[in-house]
TrEMBL record, chains A, B:
Organism in which the protein naturally occurs: Aporhodopirellula aestuarii
PROSITE patterns listed in its UniProt record: HTH_TETR_2 (PS50977)
Record's keyword terms, sorted: DNA-binding, Repressor, Transcription, Transcription regulation
Entry keyword Membrane: no
Protein name as catalogued: TetR/AcrR family transcriptional regulator
DNA sequence: CTTGACTCACTTACAGCGTAAGCGTAGTAT
DNA sequence: ATACTACGCTTACGCTGTAAGTGAGTCAAG
């Protein structure tokens, strides 16, 4: 053992992986806007500039934590029932992205070519192609599914109220949605207040529409 | 006229609207990351802090320019053919968002309750409700469509290559996608290189799936 | 055992950010 | 004339990412 001799206890070595893990933790707990080089360094009991011995710049950290999160998503089984696999893939992605609220934004705002992302995409295309989709059809299908999943997740993350409080929120804001100006928003609010509509948005709804359509497309 | 007397030419008065218009222009031409209070002020030949006489803070500017952009989108006609209107609304939104590349990100990352957005949503719900959808169904439909449109637009904006260069790009990157590791990504790249698949993603594809599904849902 | 190379955390510094606080002046209302 | 308001100005603070340079520790070769 070369370390810890003479009581000059070496700190646990900093590595790129430790940096990225700490970055994920920090973003999860404090929000992505709090992920600064200085705060991240201080979490690691180190100065900001020391991080640059392990990553080129902050962008490399962002790329790294995106790929770390993508690796949490369940990858489709090539050769499995395409519909089951696409469904599982989508719900898993949604769950993971809801766990790491900052991640979707990062995914859709940068080019992601980390190993986890490449593997994820490869398996997705593979599953579709093996199920009889042409490469072109698989490409379109994959793009449509992901567009929806990312868009849905972003909208859900962005919505500032919890499902339980929809009804009271609707009641509180109703005066600001005058019936003459916004008749249908007003109407929908009343549906929510009256409990006839829970106002919940559900990944399943749009996902079913897309997968149904893809099923038909595959048949032809 | 009270201004321009004694040759002490007053500068054109700063207003919130002039600030917002300049902000849109700046974001369009230099990118949203270049939209800083200082740069915006200098475009208006004014100091940064002067802007605060017309807007509370930068967030108010961001909210304002989002609503300005939303007002460019074609609003559905209540009482029109729902499918035609939803289609027009979606393609129009996509076009507008592609014109202002920074706007989608802003829309999906903040709560938008500006007048243009409220009117846009109200008309959308109205069009669907008048076409026979229940409020709950209209809510789900609208959410699914927008999730897809926003997600699709973000992915398209994010893609770093122009359609014309897909084939050569695929050829250039092929070595980095080894067949043993990523067989299907490799396969798809070869389809693109060979010209059998243009690699183009098309808003219509997923939109048709969703609208078809909604049609069926409305029938029942 | 010494020496030199290498690793890696450190300090300092800079330009840019949003914005709080306060000042000065032009124009309007009394 | 006086008071008030509107609004652009300057200054300053704490934050950001990171370029540049320093110095202490580890290790292999002579």
């Amino acid at each position: 053992m070369t370390k810890a001799k003479k009581g000059v206890r070496r700190r646990t070595a900093l590595t790129k992986d430790r940096v990225l893990s700490a970055a994920v933790k920090l973003a999860d707990s404090e929000g992505i806007e709090s992920l600064s080089m200085r705060k991240l360094a201080s979490r690691l009991r180190v100065e900001a500039m020391s991080l640059y011995n392990h990553v080129a710049n902050k962008d490399e950290i962002l790329d790294g934590i995106v790929d770390k999160i993508v690796s949490e998503i369940e990858v489709p089984t090539v050769g499995g029932d395409w519909r089951v696999e696409m469904h599982r893939r989508s719900t898993s992605a949604h769950e993971v992205l809801m766990r790491h609220q900052w991640a979707t934004m990062l995914i859709v705002s940068r080019v992601n070519v980390g190993p986890a992302m490449l593997h994820f995409v490869d398996s997705t295309i593979g599953c579709l192609v093996e199920a009889g989709f042409s490469y072109a059809a698989a490409d379109h299908a994959w793009n449509a599914i992901d567009s929806y999943v990312y868009g849905f997740t972003l909208q859900k993350l962005n919505f500032p109220f919890a499902p339980e409080e929809y009804a009271e929120v609707a009641k509180a804001y109703l005066p600001q949605i005058p019936e003459e100006q916004y008749p249908y928003l007003h109407g929908m609010s009343q549906e929510v207040i009256a409990g006839r509509h829970d106002g919940l948005h559900d990944l399943e709804f749009g996902l079913k529409l897309i997968l149904d359509g893809l099923e038909e497309l595959r048949g032809s």
